[in-house]
Amino acid sequence: MKDVPIWEKSALTLEEAAAYSGIGINKIRELTNARDCDFVLWVGNKRLIKRKRFDRFIEQSYSI
Question: How many C-beta atoms lie closer than 10 Å to residue 40's C-beta?
């Protein structure tokens, strides 16, 4: 199986999102716990981060 680079994935795990963005796993978990978070995708109990929406969120944020 071929490994896909993080910047080409559409959904990231918390660990991948933390490595990709430089934001800590606990902070990403806190952000995605919000009911109105539009960049989280729940697959059962698994939390995936929608990369493109996460990028937009980071670009629009002044501080996290």
Answer: 20
CB of 4 within 8 A of CB of 44?
A: no
Average pLDDT over residues 30-42: 93
- For residue range 46-57, list pLDDT tens digits in order: 999 999 999 999
All residues at 6 or more sequence positions from 51 whose CB lies less than 8 Å from its CB, including other chains: 6, 7, 9, 10, 11, 12, 17, 20
Residues pairing with 48 in the sheet = 41
| Alpha helices per DSSP H over the chain | 14-21, 25-32, 51-60
